[in-house]
Amino acid sequence: MAPPRGRFATAAECLCIILVVQAGLAAAKKRPSSPATIEYLAPADTSVHERGLVSERVTYRSILTEHSRHWSNTSAKHFTRAVLGYVTPWNSKGYDIATKFASKFTHISPCWYQVKIGADGSTTLQGGHDVDQGWIKDVRSNGQPSPRIVPRLILEGSEGAMEGYEGAAMLEFKNMKKAIDLIVKECINQNFDGVTLEAWMGWSVAGVLSDAELRKKALMFAGALGDTLAKIKTKEGKLMQLVFVIPPPPVLDMPTKFGAADLALLAPHVHFFSLMTYDFSNPARPGPNAPLPWVSLCLNILIDSPPELQQMAKKLRKEVPPQRPSHERELKSVLTGNETNRDIADQVLAGINFFGNDFQLPRGGGPVVGHEYLHVLAEQRPKLIWDAESEEHYFEYTKGSSRHKVYYPTLKSIESRLSEIKRWGAGVSIWELGQGLDYFYDLL
């Protein structure tokens, strides 16, 4: 705004000009003039701890510069308990990460298989086309010691959801035995070290867990599979193992809950439990990915057994026959074992997310993985804020008319969770390899 030529500006016009200029300067200050640079540098001679990067005071610039500079000593281990890493066929970087950092892991679980059981008793194992024996060989040869390869398989109904009578049919003895035989045969043929079974969610959808009798059969199936695998040796002479995926325990008692009693009952038959302690928030309820107090509460419910655990376990034992016949004749009961969950804490693998969320406020948005996160940092150049309650970093930005809030793991947030998990004596499971930043693996 300028006065007409030939006269001086009035005081009001001068004030208006000043305000317009100030507004423009303020807008320019808020808006990055150009994206920052994402660096991809060679590995470093020192770890992230030695470089002082594990800190609450982290900047977007340090992440953009250091994210690829993991310690060149990829075989060094800081976390000495079991560490399982998931790999998915749709994320090729996960395969590379599993190979490069093989020594950091005790178990690698590629998500390859589905077991489908129909109401008519038809039982099929699908997903074998994804198996990559060359990659398995590379992972095993790079690991010192070699991590176990335990592919994840999802138990499903014939149409992908075990609804109604189909859920009951899949837990008939003959159908369960078919499923176990197929799984075991595939493990032997492919020389796997066992499997990771994801069935709890499918059972919940099918109504299996709300029916007392079907729930017992479901637990018996998991126990029988674990017992069968534990008798079979791989070509390397290792006994096969079962990892069982479990949801976070709800605070309130629910029919679909996997609780301390279930853990105690299955522990003698399952080598590890992959606990899904992430996805606390979602687009309908934006917030931290996995607040540390919530992670601790989940471990508390499962491991620091409540006083009524022994009574609950005894009650279940009375309801299910205690006989333990061979697999060929009948599925085994899973109702024997240790009732002190502190003694089996090392069988629990607490989940740590290597992904984040870019929420669009007040509702919306969704998951964000490493390369996407880096581009948002470069474009927005935000200030990262440490949430002391959840022990996670976040930042906010505006794009167009949309406000965003981003929670994504940092070295400090991961270290906090590893320290808490160590305190409980548990292990770790990571969803998923390739979604995080390369220097995260220095912490393992």
UniProtKB/TrEMBL annotation:
<dbReference type="InterPro" id="IPR011583">
    <property type="entry name" value="Chitinase_II/V-like_cat"/>
</dbReference>
<dbReference type="GO" id="GO:0012505">
    <property type="term" value="C:endomembrane system"/>
</dbReference>
<dbReference type="GO" id="GO:0005764">
    <property type="term" value="C:lysosome"/>
</dbReference>
<dbReference type="GO" id="GO:0070492">
    <property type="term" value="F:oligosaccharide binding"/>
</dbReference>
<keyword id="KW-0964">Secreted</keyword>
<dbReference type="GO" id="GO:0008061">
    <property type="term" value="F:chitin binding"/>
</dbReference>
<dbReference type="InterPro" id="IPR017853">
    <property type="entry name" value="GH"/>
</dbReference>
<dbReference type="GO" id="GO:0005975">
    <property type="term" value="P:carbohydrate metabolic process"/>
</dbReference>
<feature type="signal peptide">
    <location>
        <begin position="1"/>
        <end position="28"/>
    </location>
</feature>
<comment type="similarity">
    <text>Belongs to the glycosyl hydrolase 18 family.</text>
</comment>
<keyword id="KW-0732">Signal</keyword>
<dbReference type="Pfam" id="PF00704">
    <property type="entry name" value="Glyco_hydro_18"/>
</dbReference>
<dbReference type="InterPro" id="IPR001223">
    <property type="entry name" value="Glyco_hydro18_cat"/>
</dbReference>
<feature type="domain" description="GH18">
    <location>
        <begin position="81"/>
        <end position="444"/>
    </location>
</feature>
<keyword id="KW-0458">Lysosome</keyword>
<dbReference type="GO" id="GO:0005576">
    <property type="term" value="C:extracellular region"/>
</dbReference>
<protein>
    <recommendedName>
        <fullName>Chitinase domain-containing protein 1</fullName>
    </recommendedName>
</protein>
<dbReference type="InterPro" id="IPR029070">
    <property type="entry name" value="Chitinase_insertion_sf"/>
</dbReference>
